[in-house]
Amino acid sequence: MPSYKRRSSERIIVKSTGGAAAQVLTLLSAIYVSKTLKKPFLLRHYPYGTGGYYPFAISSLLNSLELENEYQLTKGFDDSSKISVGAIAENHPIFKSGMNREKIFEFLRKIQIDSFLLRIRGEWAIKYSANRLNNIPQNSKMISGGYFPFRDSESIRDLASRFKKSGFPNIFYPEPDLGFEVGAVIHYRLGNKRTAFSHPELGGAVNGIIDPLIFKEILNTNNVKGEIYVVSDEPELAKQLLNEVGIKAIFNPLGKNLWFDLKLMANSKLLICPWSTVSQLAISCIQNENIEIYYPDQTGDGSRAKWKVENVIFYTPKYLPPSHRIFNEAFVSLDSNHEVYKENNSEDGINES
What we know:
With about 350 residues, this protein is of the alpha/beta class. It is built from twelve helices and nine strands.
């Protein structure tokens, strides 16, 4: 038997989808599961698993035995087109007319029998549940999402060590002398959420785009000392939306990509989040006990958060209406959003002036 197959059978396979933040959150879960089950893990990434294209961005955080050597394609999807990072894969099965495997499985998820069927084949779905994460059967062959924010000191130390060895920015601990004071950071997730009504299959309408007035209400209830910063996949537009409600925010002076945004978040006194994987990763990784983190208590369809993390304050979100101009403008992914997918994505390799 080839050594690769032998290694695979001895490991718990952890399925990964989504962008770089989702991949790190998956890795954190994989580290935790591996420790809990006393079984090494193998990460299997599906670059088109969310309906958009997100290649693997964190290979330098894993050793050669932890990462499967080939990307996995969604069944029924022909990877024949050249699309940019973050772009919608228009020929993905979920967008095609008629019935197919992806649509059947989506239906099974809605009627909540997918977990049972997955279990038959040895797959354990986490489904944003701390109870399911902590009770994975020892004989499970693989685990799948959704992964969620949690803090485990041993797993975080492992992840932080991987970041340091790879030359990635410190997204875990506040810097003793950053050179400027961070009063508050608003993470404003826009991007493909603007396809909420043009491509509802992607789930953007469920999470929605937060009305910036909610951010203003949170700021008004806190005595913020220092500047207010905004981080976003579309920082110019995010800053404009905040300015329209009277929030004067400035851009991240550390750099223009995901890792520097997370580093700024780790050095904040107040962090205000939308429902987003980037924010969930920040919640998991930030080890600053003095920071207050605001996070929505539900999605746009009323689904509640199934986890609790120290220092996280839940708020009730409100969303921009479908008539808002933001949903009629095309999302153009910035080059800086793609930096983390380049081979050399360490701190020294991506710093921009």
